Amino acid sequence: MAEKAGLCEADYRNELENPSDTFITRLCTSIGVSERYLRYGKGPVFTERSLPVADILAFRDARNWKQFHAPKDLAISLSLESSELLECFQWSGRDLEVVEKKQAMEEELADILIYSVLFADAIGVDIPTIIKEKLEKNGRKYAVEHAYGNAKKYTEFTDAE
Description:
Blueprint: H1 9-17, H2 21-31, H3 35-40, H4 53-62, H5 71-87, H6 102-123, H7 127-141, H8 144-147
Helix pairs in contact: 5-6
């Protein structure tokens, strides 16, 4: 870890005891941990996490399933898996009190993400690219000064907001 942070072992140990701002920034950059999380324990832990796209595609290819993965069928599968995620909330009373169903939610979300990767592959798009493009588009539609703390659709914003 010291090497990854660009320090010798002794300096690394000293920095761990009394971390400087430079060390925290260097550590966050080198291991991809959010500086806000490391300093304050808030926000996401990692700044970026990559989807295991190669693993998903290798799993599919090892079983010769690509032949069954037309965009239509993958879109149907995405919808079905999304419905299974919703099932975790069915009859839950208050929808925020489903802690006992967390494992099931994780599994359904994983299925949705796997099918999303397979769908992206089937239509020939790069997931990080389309996400960045969509965030930019949404950023224009949902400017912070109008959307902050506001659940309205962008078409409902008024000049007063």
